Amino acid sequence: MSDDKLLVEREGPLAWITFNNPAKHNAISLDMWRALGRALEGIAQDREVRCILLRGAGERAFVSGADISEFAGQRRSPKDVAAYDEAADHALGLLQSTPQPSVAMISGYCFGGGVAIALSCDIRIAGSDALFSVPAARLGLGYGWLGTRKLLDVVGPAWAADMLFSARRYGATEALAMGLITQFHPVAELQAQVGAYASTIAENAPLTIQAAKTIIKELSRPSGNADLALCDRLVAECFASEDYAEGAQAFAAKRKPRFVGR
Length: 262
Hints:
Layout: E1 6-11, E2 14-19, H1 30-44, E3 51-56, E4 61-63, H2 71-74, H3 78-97, E5 102-106, E6 109-111, H4 113-120, E7 123-127, E8 131-133, H5 136-139, H6 145-166, E9 170-171, H7 172-178, E10 183-185, H8 187-203, H9 206-219, H10 228-239, H11 242-253
Parallel strand pairs: 2-3, 3-5, 4-6, 5-7, 6-8, 7-10
Antiparallel strand pairs: 1-2, 8-9
């Protein structure tokens, strides 16, 4: 399930997706957006995958934004722009809706489309070298409402306005302060820290995590639009699951539980 510029690798219950365009600081092309969508479609159906991790190849970037060299051909006419946006929105939507939690491991440049990808992940963990920016105002581009909505949800209106108006760059310390990331580590420790964190997630009850992800999404909707009946049903399914019985038995026996996702 790999493409030349988008690699997918399994490591036990973890699925690593690597943006593999280091010569262009992992700038994302139309083909890469489409490959990301295909990869996520497959991963979403794989019950053995407990956590999805996204990273950039090389040492310079997570994703440095859209591949600007494609703009003249792929994003020139309204029809071309619509096709590009459809591929990007499809991949980002899948990233948000996969039953498995997703973690962005961010080192180096995370600009434009890279920020959109990171924001679509459930968790963002950065290296101390990370740099974030939404440079649309420097390129004359409109930043769509889907990306703006997610940015607003994560960092709030004041920081969203600062990012979009100034187009400036933010280091890991400032990104942590605004809530764009949840933690950062020295670059040399980043992969080990993220891998250990993802493994912790993978050991926990999948149905509980899937329910939590859906409930967070529902409660993030505008007031009054959350499907609370769905939330209640997911919680009830957790209590009725084999994993709930396993968790109780493991706790009583003082052993590590073995969750199977049923």
